[in-house]
Predict the 3D structure of the following.
Amino acid sequence: MSAAAGKDCFSFDYNVAWVDTDALGIMHFSNYFRLCERTEQLFFESRGLYESEEVFLPRVHASCDYLYPLKFRQRAKVKLSISEIGNRHVTFDYSIVNESEGKISAKCKIIVASVDKNMKPLKISSDIIKRLKGE
C-alpha cells in the first residue's frame, strides 16, 4: 500500500484468495466492492481520519464496470483516486488492475455522503478536506 500525490492518491496490493472466487476460480463480482472498501479504509487510516474525528460517510452510490477477470492466486492492485469533493459528499474512483496479466479488471465508483451521528446532512469540515487531499 502507498499514499502518493497525483491522480491515484492511494493504492493497495492484494492476492486473490480462494475464498474470493466462484466455482470457476474467478473472483466473484461482489468482492470487487470489498476490495474498494478495504482500500478506502487503509486510505483513511493513512490520512489519520479515524484518529481525531468521528467520520460518518455512508455510501449513497456504488457502481462497477467489470472489464477483465481476476483469478485465484493472481495479484491485483487497487488504485483509489478522488474525483470530487463536494460540500457534503466525496466521489471515490477505483481502478482494479490485474497485475498478473497487466490488464484493468474493473473500474468502480463509490459516492459517500457526510452525515452526523443522527444521519443528518453535514458539511465536510475543512480539516477533513485537507486530509483527503493529503495537505
